[in-house]
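EI: anyone free to look at a 279-residue chain?
SC: sure, send it
EI:
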Amino acid sequence: MRYNLFIFCFFAAIAAAAQPDSLLRPVVSAWAAELGSSHLRDTYLTPVQYSGWHAAIDYERLQVAPFGRARWTMQLRATVNLGSTENPWQTATMWHFNFRPEWALLRRFDFPALAPVKFAAGGIASANVGALYLLRNSNNPVSLQASATVGLPAMAIWPTRLAGRPLSLRYQIDMPIVGAFFAPDYDQLYYEIYLGNHSGLCHAAWPGNFFRLNNLLSADWRLGSNYLRLGYRLELFSSKAAGIVSRRVEHSFVIGFTTEWLAVGSHHKPDATILSPLY
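SC: here you go
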């Protein structure tokens, strides 16, 4: 009896898996390049503000989650940033580099009075690894930056049309709330850390000593089967620990392309409902 019940459940599961889905969850995948101005100050290296340019490559992946009655959206982002800045007298150059992967889960909120604008908010986990390199400092020219935080993102999306083609306007903002970040003492050399002086390098992060505000305003305009992405990003960053203050302000122009696709081999009904996370 148990054997027959097992066989029945096994084939029932196969039959259920083979049934076409009535809901489609396409993936929105985007690649973009950024170019803009950067303003840096890190008192571990110098008290002077350096200004110059920066460039970045961004990847983003959005998809409606398979749970939560289509009210949740998963978002994966990764950014590689490189820039060069100079002091006000143009006598010294400071390079900066950082890599930041992020994963967010956002819940959609419906406000019929504001339709068709969509709103979403949730949580985001971020990690960041980077460095500043000041050429004129021969004794200690590098300032390392590393952090791991959890924060709050919010998003507003307005689907509309331009010249008869779909256009999606989006504004997204996120800010870390809690986490940890790396910062040595004001006069602590990295050679000392290499020799084993590791105390006091990790600091608890909260908006009072680790503040970052990432703003993105973008427009995705459909051209053929893909979307052209144009946008503007403003990122504000400030940290303070162990007598070291680090600040960064970046303005960026964003240009890229976006695709919306379904997994190869997915089964669905002809009248299936499409749950797009962005369009």
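EI: Residues 1-20 have pLDDT under 50 and may be disordered.
SC: 👍
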